[in-house]
Amino acid sequence: MGLHERRQREKESIRANILQAAFGLAKTEGWASLSMRKIADAIEYSAPVVYDYFENKEAILYEISINGFHCLHIELLKAQRQFETPEEQLTAIVDAYWNFAFKNKEYYQLMFGLGMQCSGKGQMKEEFSSFQDLIYECTYNIIKKNGNNTDNACHMSHALFSAVHGLISIMMMRNTDIPSTMNKTTLDETVSAFVKSL
């Protein structure tokens, strides 16, 4: 390995360590307490080294958000590919979205700005719309399969996204006084009623 390649690999390693440390701190202390100084201390470097790789904390949060959306997209595609009919696909996609949110709370909170400012606002259109695009596709296919007018597919799929995201947000922000089983039951009933309405 040449000197240039070795230096490049070292840079990539330090960058990955910064992101990993930031995510680890968020898991233990919460996103609000994250700072460049804490990240530097966690990787045992000085703060200027961290600034060499990221302009500010927001740039780090944005990078982690992108990774979160990428991981979510993979889970949604896995769920979709398990089924043939659009009705089954829609249910599986919503369940995968729900499961991702609660298995990866720190990601989800950062990705959608729950209890904090949303990171990368206006910069993540493609990543942000993955879930909406997939439920739109299923909604459109169900409506078409039923011989109904597909003009409303966009509006209908947006309504479903809003309902799902709303339930997740309520449960994350008020998890002490709302039973998780109640919200999951509500979710299942909402999806079932949505499919029937198409």
Automatic annotation (TrEMBL):
Source organism: Chryseobacterium endalhagicum
What PANTHER family does the annotation carry?
ACREF/ENVCD OPERON REPRESSOR-RELATED (PTHR43479), ACREF_ENVCD OPERON REPRESSOR-RELATED (PTHR43479:SF11)
Name the lineage: Bacteria, Pseudomonadati, Bacteroidota, Flavobacteriia, Flavobacteriales
Q: Which UniProt keywords apply?
A: DNA-binding, Transcription, Transcription regulation
List the InterPro entries: Homeodomain-like_sf, HTH-type_Tx_Regulator, HTH_TetR, MT1864/Rv1816-like_C, Tet_transcr_reg_TetR-rel_C_sf
* The keyword Secreted is annotated on this UniProt entry: no
Q: Which residues bind DNA?
A: 35-54
Q: Where is the HTH tetR-type domain?
A: 12-72
Q: What is the designated name of this protein?
A: TetR/AcrR family transcriptional regulator
